[in-house]
Amino acid sequence: MNNDINRRTQETAAKLFGKGIKMEPPYQMWRQFDKELANDLSRHITGNLYSRTVLTIQERQYAACAMLASLRATAEFKLHVNAALNVGCDPRKITEIIFQASTYAGMPAVNEALEAYREVLKERGEWPIAPIE
User: Fold this and answer.
1) What's residue 1's pLDDT?
2) What's the pTM value of the predicted model, to 2 decimals?
């Protein structure tokens, strides 16, 4: 059981966070405080939650991006928008999701999310994105 969860955790984390953004993942900070708790949290998030198949990994990332943009959790949003791109989410759909947040979170949240999204795209060498035709 433990080996299976550890494998899922590592595989899912590699898919989500294996390339792109140049920032320290929260996991590294958690380890500085408590290595075993950091491992438990990582197993919970990537090994149990993100590896579930009820939603696809892309659907989970779209949802995470929408919620984090709405919460104005910029650093975490940048991490997850990068992860969304890593697992094949459409950059234009991410933009649309950010704009959808205006109804619920307001334009300041949208503006902050778009600015953070642009920074991630620039870091990845993927800015500008192709316009919707």
Assistant:
1) 64
2) 0.91
